[in-house]
Specification:
This protein is mostly helical and about 325 residues long. Helix content is about 75%, strand content about 0%. GO terms for molecular function: ubiquitin protein ligase activity. It catalyses: S-ubiquitinyl-[E2 ubiquitin-conjugating enzyme]-L-cysteine + [acceptor protein]-L-lysine = [E2 ubiquitin-conjugating enzyme]-L-cysteine + N(6)-ubiquitinyl-[acceptor protein]-L-lysine.
Length: about 325
């Protein structure tokens, strides 16, 4: 048995030293030390990769891990490490570090942190972003697409969103992603759709050929796994506010056919509504488009849609399109 006075002494000693054994404080101290490794100019990229792996191991079981990292300023540090230096050609070590660092950036990014992305308003940092996008792996490209989505979703980064929309090289790269691997095309379509929040960006995307790329993606939906066909359709619907987009769709040999194929296919989702609305926009302004749509079987697809379980709003739009097409014979 331990004497009462000895037990009391041990308890008092434990209470006085308790903070030394606080797992949260211990984690913060370790993270602060690891942050210094990342900040060091003498540390190699390989060593910094190892540091990021240690941070992963330290925080993966901690509910407060992300909060600690944000409080210690890891997000702006990682962004600076990623985009602070402009490299004309990426080394393998740089690519490996960029993959890991971007994963952490996306993990830490939340609407309250988007303002940190405004660092990309600096030309040198935006140039680094472009180099990473051009030369990076598929994983890096997908991660950067997610960064673009974040930028496009916030009022705090609206100026940066407009700057990205003026970067023709970046827009071309995003449009090219649409016909790459499944994961790449999904990331590209999400980023393109996000950039369309600004009218100026829409105009530039149309000029770079986004309509034809999206139409090909939609037209090939039956042959390939196209999970984002509804989003591609809604993006086209939005772009059709522009006369240049209407012209691009009408001049595409498969443009109207691609939309008609989607009228009934996505009857339980927003895809049908976007397809019908896009056809209505095109057919309202063009007798040629009406004739082509009728010849391609749009009437049958609309009637099938009206008999389906689609929303009342979609059925209303389908009836409006039928009425418009019927006027062809009035």
């Amino acid at each position: 048995m331990v004497p009462n006075h000895t037990l009391r002494h041990l308890i008092d000693q434990w209470l006085q030293m308790g903070t030394q054994f606080d797992p949260l404080l211990c984690t913060i101290d370790c993270l602060a030390s690891l942050k210094k490794n990342l900040e060091s100019d003498e540390a190699t990229l390989e060593y910094k990769c190892q540091t990021l792996q240690k941070i992963q191991a330290l925080t993966e079981e901690s509910q407060s891990g992300n909060s600690c990292l944000l409080q210690l300023g890891f997000l702006p540090l990682l962004l600076e490490l990623l985009f602070g230096k402009t490299e004309s050609k990426l080394s393998q070590e740089c690519v490996k570090f960029a993959e890991q660092a971007l994963s952490w950036v996306l993990r830490l990014l939340s609407p309250g942190e988007y303002e940190y992305l405004n660092m990309l308003n600096e030309e040198s940092k935006l140039e680094s972003f472009q180099v990473l996008f051009d030369q990076g792996t598929g994983k890096i490209k997908r991660s950067l697409c997610q960064v673009i989505e974040a930028i496009s979703s916030s009022l705090e980064t609206r100026e940066l969103c407009a700057k990205l929309g003026k970067n023709r090289k970046l827009l071309k790269g995003l449009i090219l992603l649409v016909h790459q691997t499944h994961e790449a095309s999904d990331a590209g379509i999400k980023a393109i759709s996000a950039l369309c929040c600004l009218e100026s960006n829409r105009q530039n995307l149309v000029q770079e050929g986004v309509i034809n790329r999206l139409l090909t993606y939609i037209f090939d939906a039956e042959r390939h796994e196209r999970n984002l066909t509804p989003k591609a359709l809604s993006t086209i619907e939005l772009l059709l506010e522009l006369e240049s987009a209407k012209a691009a769709l009408i001049n595409n040999p498969n443009g109207i056919k691609a939309l008609i194929k989607m009228v009934f296919r996505f009857s339980e989702h927003e895809g049908s509504e976007s397809a019908v609305q896009s056809l209505t926009i095109i057919c309202t302004d063009s007798l040629q488009a009406r004739d082509e749509a009728i010849g391609a079987g749009v009437l049958t697809q609309l009637l099938l849609l009206l008999q389906s379980q689609c929303s009342a709003r979609t059925k209303t739009k389908a009836r409006m399109l039928l009425k418009l097409l019927r006027s062809r014979w009035d």
